[in-house]
Each structure stands twice: as structure tokens, then as C-alpha cells.
């Protein structure tokens, strides 16, 4: 179980190092007055610092290393 968690942390950390952000599109209603509705597509970006991916990789390695000692 701990090895699986450690491997998952390493994989997620590597992905976070490669892709430091992602963008998605969200529809927002601008006007909603009875039968008249106007909506706009807005792009939102989610960013995270690269050191977070490195911390997850180190944490995953630590979890795997500690699970071997038991």
C-alpha cells in the first residue's frame, strides 16, 4: 500500500514538473434577464510552482524508502 502511494506521488510530482499549469474554459453568464441570456467563454489558468513537483517526488521516494524498512 505504501509503495503504491509513493509511486503515485513520484508520478504526480514528475507531471507537475513537466506541466506547471493548465488552462480550462468556463462559461459565465453576463446577462440573464428573462428570455434574454448572454454568456461569455472565459479561459482560466491554474498555476503551481515547480518546487511543489520536486517536493512530491522527494516525498514519494521517502515513502518508498520507509516502507522497505518495515
Describe the 3D structure.
The protein is α+β, with helices and mostly antiparallel strands and 70 residues long. It has one domain. It contains two helices and two strands, in the order H-E-E-H. A hairpin with a 2-residue loop joins strand 1 and strand 2 (36-47). Helix 1 packs antiparallel against helix 2 (50-69). The chain is elongated, with a radius of gyration of 20 Å. The relative contact order is 0.29.
User: Termini, distance in Å?
Assistant: 12 Å
Low-confidence stretches: none
Structural class: alpha+beta
- Percent of residues in helices comes to 40-55%
Overall average residue pLDDT: 90
Largest sheet, strands/sense/barrel: 2 strands, antiparallel
Please tell me the total number of domains: 1
Radius of gyration: 20 Å
Number of strands: 2
Task: Label the overall shape.
Answer: elongated
User: What is the H/E string?
Assistant: HEEH
Percentage of β-strand residues: 35-45%
**Spatial strand order of the main sheet:** 1-2
If helices are DSSP runs of H or I spanning 4 or more residues, what is the number of helices? Answer: 2
SSE order and pairing:
Layout: H1 2-18, E1 21-33, E2 36-47, H2 50-69
Antiparallel strand pairs: 1-2
Transmembrane segments: 7-25, 48-66
Keywords: Membrane, Transmembrane, Transmembrane helix
Protein name: DUF3185 family protein
Amino acid at each position: 500500500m505504501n509503495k503504491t502511494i509513493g509511486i503515485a506521488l513520484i508520478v504526480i510530482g514528475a507531471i507537475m514538473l513537466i506541466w506547471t499549469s493548465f488552462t480550462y474554459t468556463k462559461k459565465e453568464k453576463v446577462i440573464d434577464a428573462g428570455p434574454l441570456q448572454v454568456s461569455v467563454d472565459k479561459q482560466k489558468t491554474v498555476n503551481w510552482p515547480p518546487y511543489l513537483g520536486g517536493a512530491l517526488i522527494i516525498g514519494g521516494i521517502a515513502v518508498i524508502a520507509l516502507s522497505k524498512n518495515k
